[in-house]
Design goal:
This protein has helices at about 60-65, 75-90; strands at about 10-15, 25-35, 40-50, 55, 95-105, 105-115. The chain is built from two helices and six strands; from the N terminus they run ββββααββ. It is α+β, with helices and mostly antiparallel strands and about 130 residues long. The chain has one domain (about 20-115): GTP Cyclohydrolase I, domain 2, CATH 3.30.1130.10. The protein has a four-stranded antiparallel beta sheet with strand order 2-3-5-6, covered by helices on one side. Strands 1-4 form a two-stranded antiparallel ribbon.
């Protein structure tokens, strides 16, 4: 197999560190295991962040997400762990991770976690006529 799951999150220098801009990444095929039953849980992850000095490399992110396939974890714990790992790797100005889990036992779960650098201020939105 040419690639394998990995917990390593590679980064690259932000090409425009002087500018606030948003990176949105959608991961529609996230899987992990239910810690109670061992059955697979499926989710769509949406990562939004305002980079500071570093950006996450997408192939590394793909392999990182793949590493959860055989791990058990509650939705809340998995979502928070992923955000913590991404924040540790990239030190963004702002980062939000939304995990929309598919139905399990008739219940859908969405977990949204955020990180905000203490020195970063949300820019004022521009309203055009």
């Amino acid at each position: 197999m040419p690639s394998a799951p990995s917990k390593s999150l590679e980064t690259f220098p932000n090409p425009q560190p002087e500018r606030d801009y948003t990176v949105r990444i959608r991961v529609p095929e996230f899987t992990c295991l239910c810690p109670k039953t061992g059955q697979p849980d499926f989710a769509e992850l949406t990562l939004e962040y305002v980079p500071n000095r570093l950006c996450v490399e997408l192939k590394a992110l793909k392999l990182y997400v793949w590493s959860y396939r055989d791990e058990g974890g509650f939705h809340e714990a998995v979502t928070n762990r992923i955000l913590s790992d991404l924040v540790e790797a990239t030190a963004p100005r702002f980062m939000r991770l939304s995990a929309d889990f598919n139905v399990r036992g008739g219940i859908y779960t969405t977990v949204v976690v955020e990180h905000r650098h203490p020195d970063w201020q949300l820019p004022v939105a521009v309203q055009l006529p």
